[in-house]
Structure formats: structure tokens, C-alpha cells
Amino acid sequence: TLADGNETARLISEALGGTTLLPRSERWFRVLRPAGLAVHLMDGWMEGWKVPSYVTRALAGPSARPDAIARSLPGSPAYTRAVDGPDAEPNVELMLDLIERHTRHLSLRPIYEGKSLSWLLAVLRKTRQDQELRVRAVRAEGEAIGWYVYYSRPGRVGRVLQIGSAPTSQRTVLDHLFADAMQEGNVGLSGQSDPTWTDALGGASCRARPGRTWLLVYTANPRVKRALAGSDAFLSRLEGEAWLHFGF
Prior knowledge:
By secondary structure, this protein is an alpha+beta fold. The protein has helices spanning 7-15, 34-48, 53-60, 64-72, 92-103, 114-127, 170-183, 198-203, 222-229; strands spanning 2-5, 19-20, 27-31, 132-140, 143-152, 157-165, 188-192, 207-209, 214-217.
């Protein structure tokens, strides 16, 4: 069993013999628009102080210019590499092929079928009316090499649900993800940590930060526990409960 729980749930789970997956409980964060992110955070702060929303809306326009400079300067944490054209949404058959191709070498992985994956994506599209689910395949020289799934939240921080590719293509997939999220107006991106993506995320100026929940697992099989704790498992926000409406 898998669950996302708070500190109380973690204590109960561990008392009953469960394990907290620390390497998968953190969140990674990538800044896309520094000034826009500051305005977004300021908006939340001002809302608590009941400051009129038009005050922060007035700051949104001037933030565009410094953001454009930040994302174009190599070495900047917000630097976004140019990619070749927009990514297309894959059909379910291609998604199944990508997931199978890039996870079959792992000891623990999800097994989707066309019906179950179609249902899951349909539910995700209906769950949050204020966010757009973006499912995209990344291609290189005409061949699909990876994919990403995230909620786009213009003016706010997008939420990454799943990314996948061969290790040699991880940075390319991240570049496409960042470019797409930037084009859609997200000020940043956040996703669940994954030991197999640690190096690629770090090299792409992503920073780890504590999550609001712990990823909890209960299993009597030590091999399953070892796989989940290390890099021999494929586990994203789609396989736990984080995709549910109350999950994050």
C-alpha cells in the first residue's frame, strides 16, 4: 500500500510497521519567472492581510521584462534552453509504449492498460477546472524519447505529475518541460523527488525542498521496499494518491 500522509499519519504508519520513503518525500522546485514568482508569493501574503488584489496585478506587467532577461542569460537559475517547436500530445498507445519502453528494466513499475490510462487522464482533466492538464511527448529526430505530464497554472507554480525517459534523454525532456511551462505562463514548477532523476534535476537548476506530506509504504516484501527506497522503481504522482483532488 502507498499513501501520502502528514506527520501524524507517518507516526501511525511506522508504528504499524510501515516505512517512510524519505528519498521520494521531498519536492523539487524550478524557478521559471523569478519576478513573476515574487509577485505570486506577494499576492498570497497580501491576501492574508486583505490588501486589494489590484495591487499585485499592477506588479505583474513590470515583472515581465526582468523575467525575460533572467531566462535568456546562461548561468541564470531561470535560464530556459530553446527547444525545437512545441511538443504534441500523444495518443494513449504512444503513452503506453513510452512507459513500457522506459520502465521495463526496473524491478517495480506500473502496468497500465489503454482503458485504465485513458480513464486516469480523463479524471485528471476534470478534477481541477482552474488548471490545464498538459500531456506531451518529447521527440528527437522524429522519434519519441520521453514524456511529461503536469498541471499548468499560469501565474502560479505548475505541478508535475509524471516525467519519463531514458537516462541519456532526461535533460532534453526537462528542457522541453520547462519551455512548455514557460510558454504557458507558469512562474515555476514543482514535482515529486525521484532518485533516478536527481542528477538531471540538479543539473537543470532544480532545488530540493521538504514536501508537505510523506510518502508512506507498507509491504512485507523486502525487495519491494529496497526498490522503492532506491532507483530500481518507477513511481510518480500518478501511482500514489497525489493525483486525487485532496492530494496536493
